[in-house]
Amino acid sequence: MDEASVLELAARLRDLTVAQLEAARGGEWDEALALLEERGTLVQQLQAVDPARLSAASREAIARLLEEMQVLDRELVGRVETALQATREAQQAVERNDAAARGYRRALGTAGEGELVDREA
User: Fold this and answer.
1) Which whole-number Å values give the CA distances from 91 to 12, 34, 94, 95, 97, in the listed order?
2) Which fold would CATH assign to domain 3-120?
3) What is the pLDDT of residue 109?
4) pTM for the model
């Protein structure tokens, strides 16, 4: 792969990182995951490049792009962690409500009334 192609690859990788972060900011997690997979493919291609075959200027340009990606990834990781925490909290609320509904059904002792509790919960 020639230097221009390697630089384009690194720039595309950075652009995908930006797009992934934008998707995460918008709560579009399926899109963010798809972009992560695409990034993984490009990372593999970039890792296959022998840096010794690149000029110092190209190595420096790629290093700058990688530094930009690290900054973007830090924000992305923070957003993922926040979303995971919100999901855990929502799951815990569902589990508490489910436990309460089961308790009400046991207390009522009848299936018909238990179904009413389920619909109300």
Assistant:
1) 37, 24, 5, 6, 10
2) Methane Monooxygenase Hydroxylase; Chain G, domain 1 (1.20.58)
3) 74
4) 0.75
